[in-house]
Amino acid sequence: DMVTAANNAARISGYGERYDAKCRNLFSDPVPADDLNGASAIILNPPRAGAKNQVKQIAESDVGTLVYVSCNPQTFAGDTSLLRNAGFKIS
Description:
By secondary structure, this protein is mainly α. The protein has helices at residues 2-12, 33-36, 52-60, 73-85, and strands at 42-44, 66-68. The protein has a two-stranded parallel sheet with strand order 1-2. Helix 3 (52-60) packs parallel to helix 4.
């Protein structure tokens, strides 16, 4: 429901061509870095267990902005450590 609502909001707001939300199993099927390249931003709302496999792909991509929504400080710390090591600035 959340993904459908986000896509509908983007379409209604005129961003439908530039926005694409998807529900995906980030553990077994992360979006490859090559598919992320060229995106201006990523919004990531991982499960409590974090998104280590996906974060590795983001770190290898050329994406400049990542909005990471976390409900677990421990997995957030681990994921952001990988991102910092890849040159991302955490703010």
